[in-house]
Amino acid sequence: MPLPDQPERALLPAGFMDVLPPHATCEAETVERLMQVFAAYGYDRVKPPLIEFEETMLAGSGAALTKATFRLMDPVSQRMLALRSDMTTQIARIAETRLGHRPRPLRLSYAGQVLRVRGTELRPERQFGQVGAELVGAPSRTADVEVIVMAAEALAAVGIGGLCVDLGAPSLVPAILAQRGLDAATAARLNDALDRKDAAAVTALAPAVGTATADLLVRLLAAAGPAQPALEKLTAAELPAAAASVRSDLIAVADGLAATGAELTLSVDPVEGRGFEYHSGVTFSLFASGAPGELGRGGRYLTGTGEEATGVSLFMDAVLKALPPPARLRRVLLPAGTLAADGRRLRSEGWVTVSALDRAAEPGAEARRLGCSHALIDGTVVVVAAEPHSLTP
Amino acid sequence: MPLPDQPERALLPAGFMDVLPPHATCEAETVERLMQVFAAYGYDRVKPPLIEFEETMLAGSGAALTKATFRLMDPVSQRMLALRSDMTTQIARIAETRLGHRPRPLRLSYAGQVLRVRGTELRPERQFGQVGAELVGAPSRTADVEVIVMAAEALAAVGIGGLCVDLGAPSLVPAILAQRGLDAATAARLNDALDRKDAAAVTALAPAVGTATADLLVRLLAAAGPAQPALEKLTAAELPAAAASVRSDLIAVADGLAATGAELTLSVDPVEGRGFEYHSGVTFSLFASGAPGELGRGGRYLTGTGEEATGVSLFMDAVLKALPPPARLRRVLLPAGTLAADGRRLRSEGWVTVSALDRAAEPGAEARRLGCSHALIDGTVVVVAAEPHSLTP
C-alpha cells in the first residue's frame, strides 16, 4: 500500500539496504556454513560488541579506520563511542586481554555487521557482513598456509570453487628502501608509481632512488602474475637481507599451499601494498574465477602486544554475489483446521508449512496465491503448481 | 598479556560485552535454530539495516522508542540517522512498502542486534539480539494462535521446554473506560493503581471513576492467574460491548492454544498493559519455568497502513540464560605434517581438528595444552585426556 502522506518513509540512507527474501536466508545460512568450517578447524567463535569506546576501537591498527568510522556521544559515560567499521582490531583486543591467558596459538573466529561512514566506488554499501578468523601467537609460516587453505575450504563449502589466491608481501618494498633514506616526497612519488604498476615512472625516479634500486623495483613489478614464473623471477633477484627474508616467507607459503593439494590458482604480486598497511608478512587476496570483486583478504601482522598473528576476513557482500542461486524450498499449504500433529510431521520431513488462516479459500488456489507448490488435501500432499510462484519481490 | 601503558584499553562501555567461547557459538546456533523453525512455518527472513533515517525509524509506533535510540549525523545525507533499538517497526515498514505487493497474509522473520542508549535494571545490556516473526494482514484469531505455538515450538527446539504463556488484552481496560470520560489526572492515577495491581487504590478512586466501573476493574484484577479460573471469572463479568469483544478474542486464543495440543502453561492477566502500548488485541509474554526473565513477547497490532498483524519477539539475552549448557565438541590434535586429506576426513566425520604448527611438541601434551581430548598419533585417533580442558576463559 502506498504511503501518500509519507512519501519518503521507505527510503533508506545511501549505502543501507533491506535484504529481502530469499536473500536474507541465503546470507545467514552462508555465514553459518563458513563459520562451521572455521569451527571444524578449531577456531572458537567470539562476538565483540557493535560499539566500543572510540579510543579503544581506533587504537593501534584501528587508527587507519578513523575516517571510516561513525562516532557518537555516550550519554551514560559522557565519552565518545565508535561504531565498528572492522572487526579484526576487536578480535586482536580480545586475544590480548580477555583471552590473553589462553594457550597459544589461539584460534578465533567471528561474524558480524560492520558500518562505514562512506561507501567507496567498489563497495558502495555502508553496512556489510564480515566473517573471519584469526590465528594469534603463531610465527610459523604453516599458520599462513592453514588460514588460506581453511578460507578456501569454507568458500568451497558454500559453493564457491575455482578460488584464486593472490599472494603479496607488502613489507618487501619497505625492506628494500629501508637503507636508502629517501626523502618523504620521493618516497611518496615512488609508492604512487609502484601502486600504479608504472615501470616507466619508477625508472624516471632512478636519479633520486638510485639506479640499482630502481632497476630492482622494475624487476619486481615484472614478477607479478601466476605464481610459478613470478616466484622464479623473484628468486633470481638480488635482495638485501631483510627483503630476502620476506621473499623466503612468500616462497614458503606458496610451497606450503601447493603441498596441501588444495585446488587453488596461485598468483603473486610482490609490490602491491594498498590496503595492507598494517601487515608485517605474507598477505593474500581471494578471488573467485568469474566473480568481479575481492571475496576476502588477510595476512600476517603483529598484535598490539607484539604477538605474531595471521588471519582472514571474508566480505559477505562480495561472497554473496559469487554464490550460486539458492535452492527453492518445498512449501505446502495446510488448510485451516489441519491437525497440529500433521503440521509437525510435515515440518519434520523437511516441508515448509504455510497455514491457511480461514476456511474460505479453495486449497489449490490458495496454495498458488501464497507461493506454495503443494497443498495438503484430504490428508495427502498434492502438487498444485508445476512451478512454484516466485518468492522474490 | 597485560597492557601496562593502556590500562583502560580492554574496558567496554557499560552495557556492552564481548561474548567469548563457547557462548558466542551457542548464541549463533540458537538464533539459527529458532529461525529454522520460523522458516519451516513459512516465515521468510528479511534483514533490515542497523541504521535508518531517524524520521523513518522513529515514525508511528517507533516514536515510543525515541529516548532509547542512539542518533547520529550522516555526513553523506546531512540528515539525522538512528541506530535501531527494536526491529519490529523495521519489519512493519518492509511489509508496508517493499513487500506491500506480496499476497496476504505475509509471514516474515528476522534476527539481528539492537542497541539501546540506556540499559534498564532488568536488562542492563545496551546491545542484545532480537529474533522474531510477524504475520501481517491476518485479522483471524487463528493467526495469534499460530504465532504463539510457533514461538513455543522454536524455544522447544533449542531446549527450552515447560513454556508459560501469559495472555493479555491491553485494550480491555481502555475499552471499559472509553465512555467514562475520565480527566487525565484520574486516568493516570487509575492506570498506576492497575499497574501495581492495587485493588484498594482502585476502590479508593470509585468516586471519580464510578462505583460500578471501579468494582468491575477490581474483579478484573482478581481475574489474573492460571487461564481456566481466570477466564471463568472474566466470562462472568458484565462488560460493555467493545470490551466484551476484546474478551471474546482472549478466550478464542486461549481455546485455540488448548486445541493445538501444544504443551503450554497458560495464564491470563486481563489488566496488564505495560510495554504493550501500541497493541490492539491479544498480547502475550513468554516465560520458561525456572528461568527468571521474560523470554519474549508479542501480540496483535495495526501496522502504519492499518493492516491487522500479530508477531513475536524473542530476547536473546534471556533465551540464552534459559538454555541448557552447550555440548562439548570432540577436538583432535593433528601433529605438524599431517596430510591435508587426513584432516579433511576427520572434519567430515564431525571432529574439530586443531593443527600443531611446529613439530617440536609431544602430541599428547600439546593436545592437552590446546584443549583437545584426542590426538592423531601414527594415523590413529587416541584419547589423550580423560576430560577435555575447559575452554571457557
Secondary-structure map with pairings?
2 copies of one chain form a homodimer.
Chain A: H1 23-40, E1 44-45, E2 51-53, H2 54-57, E3 71-73, E4 80-83, H3 88-96, E5 106-115, E6 127-136, H4 141-157, E7 163-168, H5 172-177, H6 184-195, H7 199-204, H8 206-209, H9 211-222, E8 225-226, H10 227-236, H11 241-260, E9 264-269, E10 279-288, E11 296-302, E12 308-315, H12 316-321, E13 331-334, H13 340-348, E14 352-355, H14 363-369, E15 374-377, E16 380-383
Parallel strand pairs in A: 1-5, 7-9, 13-14, 13-15
Antiparallel strand pairs in A: 2-4, 3-4, 5-6, 6-12, 7-10, 8-9, 10-11, 11-12, 15-16
Helix pairs in contact in A: 1-4, 4-11
Can you walk me through this structure?
The structure is a homodimer of 393-residue chains. Chain A has 393 residues and is α+β, with helices and mostly antiparallel strands. Chain A folds into three domains: 13-160 and 272-327, BirA Bifunctional Protein, domain 2 (2-Layer Sandwich), CATH 3.30.930; 171-264, no CATH class; 331-383. Chain A is built from 14 helices and 16 strands. Chain A has helices at 23-40, 54-57, 88-96, 141-157, 172-177, 184-195, 199-204, 206-209, 211-222, 227-236, 241-260, 316-321, 340-348, 363-369; strands spanning 44-45, 51-53, 71-73, 80-83, 106-115, 127-136, 163-168, 225-226, 264-269, 279-288, 296-302, 308-315, 331-334, 352-355, 374-377, 380-383. A nine-stranded mixed β-sheet of chain A has the order 1-5-6-12-11-10-7-9-8, with helices on both faces. A four-stranded mixed β-sheet of chain A has the order 14-13-15-16, with helices on both faces. In chain A, α4 (141-157) packs across α11 (241-260). Residues 1-10 and 388-393 of chain A have low confidence and may be disordered. At the A-B interface, α1, β1, β2, α3 and β5 of A face α1, β1, β2, α3 and β5 of B. Chains A, B: InterPro entries: aa-tRNA-synth_II, aa-tRNA-synth_II/BPL/LPL, HisRS-like_core, HisRS/HisZ, HisZ. Chains A, B: One of its GO terms (molecular function) is histidine-tRNA ligase activity. Chains A, B: Keywords: Amino-acid biosynthesis, Cytoplasm, Glycosyltransferase, Histidine biosynthesis, Transferase.
